[in-house]
Amino acid sequence: MQQFMTTLLGGLTLGAVYASFALALCLIWRSTRVVNFAQAPMAMVTTYVGLEVIEATGSYWLGFAVALAAGFVLGALVERLLVRHVEGAGDLNIVILTLGLFVALHGLAALVFGSDYRSFPAPFGLKGLHVGGHNVAITPFGVFTIVAVGIVLVLLVLLFRSTDVGLRMRAAAFSPEVARLLGVRVGAMLTLGWALAAVVGSLAGLLIAGGNLVFPQYMDSVVVYGFVAAVLGGLDSPVGSVVGGLILGLVLSFVSGYVAGDLVPVTALIVLVGVLLVRPGGLFSHVAERRV
Known about the structure:
- The protein has 292 residues and is mainly alpha-helical.
- It has one domain (2-219).
- Helix content is 72%, strand content 3%.
- The protein has 11 helices and 4 strands; from the N terminus they run ααααβββααααβααα.
- A two-stranded antiparallel ribbon has the order 1-4. Strands 2-3 form a two-stranded antiparallel ribbon.
- Helix 2 runs parallel beside helix 4.
- The longest helix has 31 residues, at 2-32.
- The N and C termini lie far apart (55 Å).
- Pfam families: BPD_transp_2.
- This is Branched-chain amino acid transport system permease protein.
- Keywords: Amino-acid transport, Cell membrane, Membrane, Transmembrane, Transmembrane helix, Transport.
- It is a multi-pass membrane protein.
């Protein structure tokens, strides 16, 4: 029973991490109809920025805020300076651009911040909670991770369902020509979409880094698992992204805990292929996108 609870709680924490990255992919997909494969190295760069601030000031929360702000600026700059020049030239061009950016940011981070392993602090304890005389296999930072993902989910749902800005972002993504005729500043909405997605991605980078070692490639595996989580829940659904991340985290945790840790990547691949074969739109997809 103890092993089961440990595996379960570990899976929930791991799933929340995957969900945070899946939310970033979901946000940029909903707001720009682009899958940004450079999301992970962008988050890695902003995490390093936050670490530099933390080491210089001794304040975790100041570094946390600066990292999120850096994500916003970086996302906006990437859209304005790079992505905008290939918009309308085909979806494949943007995908290739993000893959190239993936490689370039790794090299840039190694040059600026170095390739050595560096310890990233956590704002809360990393020891299991003690409840009712029993040790619980979840840390205060794990609780913080789950709560942070829940807050981001609520904010994204409110953004797209209850605000004019969210409606304009989706209109700019789905039909930019019609949106322009209706007075929507399409360029500004696309920039905002990239900026907000980078903020969520930066949060994912901070959650993954907390209490661990960081180096330029520390988020590379998250690209795979976060993408699988987003596809599992549905790239167009924030709720689906979180549910997909939690499901994937639980599945991989139980496979690692009861079968073999070496099978975790294979299991993720099986989940991805199974979803694409059975329900390509994801578990929370409602209707297929209509194409003219």
